């Protein structure tokens, strides 16, 4: 998973309380981008499960398929930036915190991208991509995808 340049958490006093829902059939790594721009894995969500996080509005989050390292999305965006906390249930005394529900989904891939993902999932070494009868540019892209899916650059937090 390539790190996104210039994306990192910043200091903030504005809290956000979220519940990440895995709406996919994949295992999803919940990743916080820290103050140095490093990816910190908070949790791996099983399909259909959720995870509550207390965070800040200036803290970006990513969601990655645990097995393939493909990026997943929230509202069609690869990076989730929390919104300020505003929700209480007024009917309860005292008012109870209402978390913002965030649905993690699979992006809509182009046919080209999906085909490359399927090929990548069937190759064990980046060099195997160079043996396929494909244009050199696709061989190189596929080799990079295989290399990326076998590399773990995420630091485990919990």
Description:
- It is elongated, with a radius of gyration of 18 Å.
- Strand 7 (88-89) and strand 8 form a beta hairpin.
- The protein contains three helices and ten strands; from the N terminus they run βββββββββαααβ.
- It has 158 residues and is of the alpha+beta class.
- It is 19% helix and 30% strand.
- It has two domains: 1-107, Immunoglobulin-like, CATH 2.60.40.780; 109-158, Orthogonal Bundle (Elongin C, Chain C, domain 1), CATH 1.10.750.
- The chain starts with 14 loop residues before the first strand and ends with a strand.
- The strands form three sheets. The protein has a four-stranded mixed sheet, with no helix packed on it. A four-stranded mixed sheet has the order 5-2-3-10, with no helix packed on it. It has a two-stranded antiparallel sheet with strand order 7-8.
- The mean pLDDT is 88.
Main sheet, how many strands, which sense, barrel?
A: 4 strands, mixed
H/E element sequence: EEEEEEEEEHHHE
Strand order of the largest sheet: 4-1-9-6
Mean pLDDT score: 88
Range of helix content = 10-25%
Count of extended strands: 10
Determine Rg (CA atoms, Å): 18 Å
CATH superfamily of the largest domain: von Hippel-Lindau disease tumour suppressor,  beta domain
Number of domains: 2
Using the alpha-carbon principal axes, give the shape. elongated
At the first level of CATH, what is the class of the largest domain? Mainly Beta
**From the coordinates shown, what is the CATH architecture of the largest domain?**
Sandwich
User: Which residues sit in consecutive blocks of at least 5 with pLDDT less than 50?
Assistant: none
How far apart are the termini?
A: 19 Å
- The CATH topology of the largest domain comes to Immunoglobulin-like
Report the sheet-strand fraction.
25-35%
Please, how many helices?
Answer: 3
Structural class: alpha+beta
């Amino acid at each position: 998973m390539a790190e996104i340049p210039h994306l990192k958490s910043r200091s903030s006093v504005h809290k956000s309380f979220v519940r990440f829902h895995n709406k996919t059939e994949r295992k999803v790594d919940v990743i916080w981008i820290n103050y140095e721009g490093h990816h910190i894995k908070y949790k791996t969500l099983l399909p259909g499960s959720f995870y509550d996080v207390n965070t800040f509005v200036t803290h970006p989050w990513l969601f990655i398929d645990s097995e393939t390292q493909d990026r997943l999305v929230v509202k069609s965006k690869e990076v989730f930036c929390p919104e300020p906390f505003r929700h209480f249930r007024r009917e309860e005394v005292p008012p109870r915190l209402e978390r913002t529900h965030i649905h993690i989904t699979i992006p809509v891939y182009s046919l080209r991208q999906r085909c490359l993902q399927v090929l990548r999932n069937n190759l064990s070494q980046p060099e195997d991509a160079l043996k396929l009868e494909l244009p050199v540019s696709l061989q190189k892209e596929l080799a990079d995808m295989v290399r990326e899916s076998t590399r773990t650059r995420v630091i485990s937090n919990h």
